[in-house]
Design a protein that fits this description.
Blueprint (H helix, E strand, L loop, with lengths): L1 E5 L2 E5 L7 H8 L18 E4 L2 E4 L5 H4 L3 E3 L12 H8 L9 H14 L5 H8 L9 H17 L8 E4 L17 E4 L2
Parallel strand pairs: 1-5
Antiparallel strand pairs: 1-2, 3-4, 3-5, 6-7
Helix pairs in contact: 3-6, 4-5
Length: about 190
Amino acid sequence: MISLSVNGVTHTLEVDGDTPLLWVVRDILGLKGSKFGCGAGLCGACTMHLNGQPIRTCIMPLAAVAGQAITTIEGLAPGDELTPVQQAWIELNVPQCGYCQSGQIMSATALLAANPAPSDQDIDNAMSGNLCRCGTYPRIRKAIHRAAELQQRHASATPFYEVRMSHSGENHSGAGNSGVNQAEVNHG
């Protein structure tokens, strides 16, 4: 049995510890936003966050992430809310085919959490592990700059999403049907 926290919800799973996290999240938990691209951790389509840092889940064994906080594209914002990155992606019509976009958004979100005002070079460095076969890189860069503007407009010093586990196991999200259990989600 392996315990796994995904989007603030703890799951206890009877799965081989060598199973890639991507397959557990997609096939067992039913969260299909993250995609399989290369199977070698080279394209970024499978990117999720492990304790707030982007990781390639197609090569990450489940046992290596047991008990840690995993965030998928579905967990960035509750319900119909959007993060500044998601807002910018829509506003600037970033996707073409869309296949790589969940990984792009996850990497951009982690970048802006660590560096709220990135330069073009910072963006290129942070996004270099995410491939886009359609070549939307100029729109991606422009959207990250726009997301940084949107994020700065939110007058909070808190990153635009933060999940804190409750010590009591109570739901502190303040939303009855947000799909988040045992977690507090704070949107700045």
